Amino acid sequence: MSNKSFAGDSSVTIARYGGAKKVTVIGAGVAGLVAAYELEQLGHHVEVLEGSRRIGGRIYTHRFRSGPAAPLVELGAMRIPTKHRHAMHYIAKLGLTDKVRDFKTLFSEGDNYYTTNSGLVRVREMARAIVEDFRRDLPGQRYSDETVFFGAWLMAIGNAIAPANFRDNLRDEFSLELLDLVERIDLTPFLRGRASGDIDLHAFFAAYPEVGSSRQGRLARFIEDVLDETSPALVRMEGGMDQLVRRLAERIQGPITCGQEVIGLDVRDDHVLVDVREGDDIVTRRCDYVLCAIPLSVLRRLWLSGLSEAKLSAIRKVEYWSATKVALHCREPFWEQDGITGGASFCNGRIRQTYYPPVGNDPVGGAALLASYTIGGDADVLGRMPATVRHAEVIQELSKMHPELLRPGMVVDAVSLAWGQNWWSEGAGTIRWGKDAITCEEERAEAARPENRLFFAGEHCSSTPAWIEGAIESAVNAVREIQLYKPRTLLLSA
Ligand SMILES: Cc1cc2nc3c(=O)[nH]c(=O)nc-3n(C[C@H](O)[C@H](O)[C@H](O)COP(=O)(O)OP(=O)(O)OC[C@H]3O[C@@H](n4cnc5c(N)ncnc54)[C@H](O)[C@@H]3O)c2cc1C
């Protein structure tokens, strides 16, 4: 990526303790790049080692053709809740505000489809069907209509977003405490139509946040994430999310080198030894300071030495969920003929969520369709298939909703990424659904805790895991730790 030498402009700011530090950042995902950028702003010198052949990590925009009008699809992160202040701050700081557009999501567009127990319905008509489904499965009939509407919508959102094992537990969580709690609240201000059973869950949880923290907070992260994913306040980046990481890389002075896979770390008192695979060779580098910004799911397969037992145990234990995305390049945006202009549909079965990315102005270029987005066990089922089989299965299943897919020549190309099976991530993210607030914070703090001169960043070190926001938050925290780190020699002389 760069032939620049390992030296920044040390005149920028006087570093806090011991002058400018030399920091080796491992991983050119958004966490590693934000950290490298901010470290240089403070006058430190950075180099970034990236194992794969591209920067960006789990921010990955795929373009089906070349040129500015190429249909594109996000194989990694695709939207940002506007309440994510770190992410929005960097978009502005990098001069990308003019690229921000509204992101149409699940349940936001009346013409999209939702699959109920009895078949396909349009989103604008789904309320009645999901209420019927929910009422049928409810033990006893002791709840008011409004409480049933509430439960039906939360189940519908959870059903569309959560993976199979979590969906199965969800009903127990409801029937036990949540519905009893909601039954005591007046839900009429949140109804969007009593007869239809439509209710505004976002407004409800904004007014009663404590309800999301019931069940000892075990549902809190789940509720926050699914509400964020279906929020009306989501944005995307026109031209691709990867502009975020490219802009960051352009502004970093030190070298960012791809194809540098780190395979071992040895933490010593006043330096860290880093083993790097360079072609057929393994080179050991002696680094003053190291910021490890790779996922723990990858770190645990590395050769590690000099780390505490507590840290090693945290690295081993943190749970990662998979995600698989399958995208199609279609000859034309056939869904527009069916009244669909964006947003997402929910198909039951294997493929779960289908998104309709914005269509460009060039009719010759065709259109991109995010045919399937799955997480957890659902993602592993698709992820473990050979790519050609995976693509064929998805097209076949989605053709029940969109038969146009089977027209000759309609699917021009297919691409997919199974993050759970990807060498550089071994998972899509650390999702702490089903864990109480104390456990979440303990996991975060242990993941982020430095060991001598080895520091940590990445979404797993944050209070907003599995989001860009969390990756940036962790980078900012790590930069602060490095800035404040007092070398042992200074401590002894103090
Ligand atoms: C399918 C999917 C959808 C998502 N959707 C959203 C969304 O809509 N909105 C949102 O905000 N977030 C979303 N996220 C989450 C978001 O993408 C991540 O939280 C964020 O990008 C993680 O950044 P990171 O820097 O912590 O890690 P990464 O992006 O994983 O960066 C780590 C880097 O380290 C490199 N690396 C790994 N191993 C080594 C090694 N041994 N040596 C050297 N380098 C190595 C990797 O190649 C990678 O470049 C999504 C993630 C996925 C997978």
CATH class of the largest domain: Alpha Beta
CATH structural architecture of the largest domain: 3-Layer(bba) Sandwich
| Helical run tally | 16
List the strand order in the largest sheet.
12-2-1-16-25
CATH topology of the largest domain: FAD/NAD(P)-binding domain
What's the total number of strands? Answer: 25
- Taking the alpha carbons of the first and last residues, their distance comes to 42 Å
Percent range for β-strand residues:
15-25%
Number of domains: 3
Structural class: alpha+beta
Overall mean confidence score, pLDDT: 91
CATH 4th-level superfamily of the largest domain: FAD/NAD(P)-binding domain
How are the SSEs placed, and which strands pair?
Elements: E1 22-26, H1 30-41, E2 45-49, E3 61-63, E4 72-74, E5 80-81, H2 85-93, E6 100-102, E7 113-116, E8 119-122, H3 126-137, H4 145-161, H5 164-183, E9 191-193, E10 198-199, H6 201-207, H7 209-212, H8 220-229, E11 234-237, H9 242-251, E12 256-257, E13 261-267, E14 272-278, E15 281-287, E16 289-292, H10 296-299, E17 303-305, H11 309-317, E18 320-321, E19 323-330, E20 344-346, E21 353-355, E22 367-375, H12 376-383, H13 387-398, E23 411-418, E24 429-430, H14 437-448, E25 454-456, H15 468-484, H16 488-493
Helix pairs in contact: 1-9, 1-15, 3-4, 4-5
The protein binds flavin-adenine dinucleotide.
